[in-house]
Design a protein that fits this description.
The structure holds two protein chains of two kinds. Chain A is mostly helical. Chain A has six helices and no strands. Chain B is built from three helices and no strands. The chains are: A mainly alpha, B mainly alpha.
Amino acid sequence: MLMSTEAFAQMAFWIVVGLTFTGAAIAVFPRNILYNVLGLALALTGVGGLYLYLGSFFIALMQLLIYVGAITIVIVFGIMMSRPLHLEVPKRELSKVAMAAAAGLFFFMAIVGVVFKTQWVPAVQRSTDWSVETIGHLLLTRYDLVFEVISLVLLVAIIGAIVTAGFTRRLS
Amino acid sequence: MNSLGTYMIVAAALFSLGLFGILQRRNLIGMLISIELMLNGANLNFMAFNRFLAPEPAVGQIIALFVMGLAAAEAAIGLSIILALFRTLQSINVERAQRLRG
């Protein structure tokens, strides 16, 4: 029996959601930091798939490029250069874990309550222009100041990273 | 196809997992990983609102791009701080880093 395209897309959606949550759980729960990074990569890829379902191929590509391709690799570099994996693993106190779980659960329940209580009203006039061209045009006209400020922030972050990591080497 | 509520609950679950992680980990790199999860939850929310409610679809995508840029800057500076901390303390357990406590 062949499934309809819609049912197949629906099933694929839930598989993507499952992958995202598996990755997020691997990113948070295991003690080994290397597993955490691999789980993070899986979760970020899953979120990229959700962006595809939300209709934006461009942002899904950017997610793969920036998050999975750059940030995860940078974190792996950080692990490589900091702690040998066999050294001390910080202890976890049960009370702290319980309180953290309570805080997370409380926040989740609050958000779910808000989601179901609110009447979400779409905007009256909605344009259907999803092209990358429009994004680029808006970035260079209406949002050009924000664009430049982001570039400046990135530049300052790079210089700051070099200075922070370089000075301590000279000190020690 | 799927409703706005589905995406928002997925995003909220991602954010809560990140919140749980950042409160419970004592390892700085683990905390950084949890922050990335939280940022992704927020970003997913932006994209969902953009898909279902917003008048102009381009604006939500631009916000998502900005969040990604800020996340990249945050990862770079956070990792350099972790490296500096490791060189001075020989450990990345945050509870050891208390020389400045008042």
